[in-house]
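Hi support team,

I submitted a single chain yesterday and got back a structure, but I'm not sure I'm reading the token output correctly. Could someone confirm the output below corresponds to the sequence I sent? I've pasted both exactly as they appear in my results page.

Thanks,
R.
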Amino acid sequence: MPRDKDIGRRDWRSVWPAPAKLNLFLHVVGRRADGFHLLQTLFRFLDYGDSLRFSPRADAQITLARPLPGVLPEHDLCARAARLLQRESGCGMGAHITLKKRIPMGGGLGGGSSDAATTLVALNHLWRLHLPRHRLQEIALQLGADVPVFVFGQNAFAEGVGERLTPMRLPDACYLLVFPPVAVPTARIFAHPDLRRDTPGMSPVDWRPGCGHNDLEPVVCALYPQIDAQLALLRRHAPGARMSGSGSTLFAECPDRAAARALSRKLPLRTAIAPAA
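Hi R., thanks for writing in. Yes, this is the structure output for that exact sequence:
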């Protein structure tokens, strides 16, 4: 996500980044009466992701250049974000959205959430709405629990349903990403009866690199043998490897690109190298 000082220099010709994220850990610490899960997680942004362009329209229509395969236009998160911003701000302008997709769908890297957040930030600037970032985060929460952190635009310790964010300074790192050929529906994992929902909470100040685990990982690995097998193979070479979010993407932290490339050469898997942003 562009920083505030960079946003002011952008216009309708600009390309807007939508970075991927990793969940360095993900604990389910409880469940609210309305069924929403209470989480603690550490979001880390990557120098890897999607990109968007926006074109003005003379009417109030929101249109997509290339609808995503298998996603109805009315369900597309970018289009939903733009229409929600129109409603919340009373804006009568429209936009044509072109998305270049790089983050795999159903991969646990927050691709759709990041795209939606970038749409909110970009159109807030391009439509000259001047909504403050905290207001955009409130709007973002209506689109999904992961969307506010992408509007926040910083590595963050997240709590609640993902809306309580504490910025975190993290050491430099590079990550090897592994992409099992499976798309995992997040709702299925959170609804599973075997999901642990009582992990003790921690304070952001108590977190250290390597701390924590992913409560969703055992359920996902039980349901998707391909993910389980690829995670086991990755851990033979990188014992600290984990799954991000609800999967399916797996990751191993490396000190630099050279180490990530060396690890990739040992694996007969689909991989990508992603430095921390």
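A quick pointer for reading it: The radius of gyration is 19 Å. Let us know if anything else looks off.

Best,
Support desk
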